[in-house]
Amino acid sequence: MKILALHSSPNEDGLTAATVERAVSGAKAADAEVELVRLCDLEIAGCAQCDDGWGKCRREGDCTIEDDFQTIRAKCREADALIIATPVYFGQVSESAKRFLDRLRRCEIGTTRERKLVDKPVLTIAAAGGSGRGCVTCLFELERYCDHMGMRPFDLVTVTRFSRDHKLPALEQAGRRLVSFAQELP
Questions:
Q1: Please, are residues 173 and 29 in contact by the beta-carbon 8 Å criterion?
Q2: Helices (H), the chain
Q3: Coil, strand, or helix at residue 33?
Q4: Which of 70, 68, 7, 66 is nearest to 35 (CA)?
Q5: Is the pLDDT score of 110 beyond 70?
Q6: How many beta carbons lie within 10 A of that of residue 53, not counting itself?
Q7: Is the pLDDT assigned to residue 111 strictly greater than 60?
Q8: What is the signed CA dihedral for 58, 148, 136, 49, rounded to 10 degrees?
Q9: What is the residue-wise DSSP string for 117-128?
C-alpha cells in the first residue's frame, strides 16, 4: 500500500505540518509505505492556460510546462491513496496547493487517456492556525478539486488552533483507516 502525502504549507513546524505528520503516522502504523512531499520545496509554476485554455493538457493529458509538476503528478497516479493538507489562507488553499491542484485537475480531466485518479481515496485537511475562520470554504475548495478529478473522498477534515488537541489524534486514526479503506476498494 503506497500513500502520497502532499503538504502545502511553507511553515515546516506549524499546524498544517502537525496535521499531516499525524495522518502519515497513522498510515505508517497500518503498514503503508508513505512518501511526504512538501509542495513549497518544489518548483511548480501556475497553469499557463495554453491555447486559450484548451492546450495539450486538455487534448492529450500532458502539461507543456517543464518543472516538478510532472514528477509529483506521476507519484499521485502511482499511489493507492492520497493525503492533501493545506493551510487556510483567506478561506482558500495555499498558493502552492492551488498551483499544483489547478494543473493536476486540468491534466486529469482533459485527457482522453485513462484517468488514473478516478476513485482514488483521498484524505483532505484544511488547517487554520490564525483566527480559525475560512476552514469550511477551504475544505469545500479541496472537495471541488477532488470531485473534478473523480477522486473518492475518504474524509474531509478541518483543524483550527482551537481544535488541534482533539483533531490530531483523530487524524492519526484517519491515516490508519485510510489504509484499510483503500485496501477494501475493488
A1: no
A2: 15-29, 50-53, 56-60, 69-78, 95-110, 135-148, 164-184
A3: strand
A4: 7
A5: no
A6: 12
A7: no
A8: 10
A9: TTT-EEEEEEEE
Extract the C-alpha cell encoding 162: 482551537
Long-range CB contacts (within 8 A, 24+) of 170-173: 171/19, 171/22, 171/23, 171/26, 171/125, 172/22, 172/23, 172/25, 172/26, 172/29, 173/26
The closest of 45, 36, 29 to 8, measured between CA atoms, is 36
pTM metric for this prediction:
0.95
Strand order, beta sheet including 81-87: 33-38, 2-7, 81-87, 121-128, 152-160
Residue keyed to cell 495555499 = 94
In this prediction, residue 49 has a pLDDT band, given cuts at 50, 70 and 90, of confident
Q: Return the closest-CA partner of residue 163 out of 122, 123, 140, 131.
A: 131
What is the amino acid identity at position 1? M
CA atoms within 13 A on the CB side of 72: 27
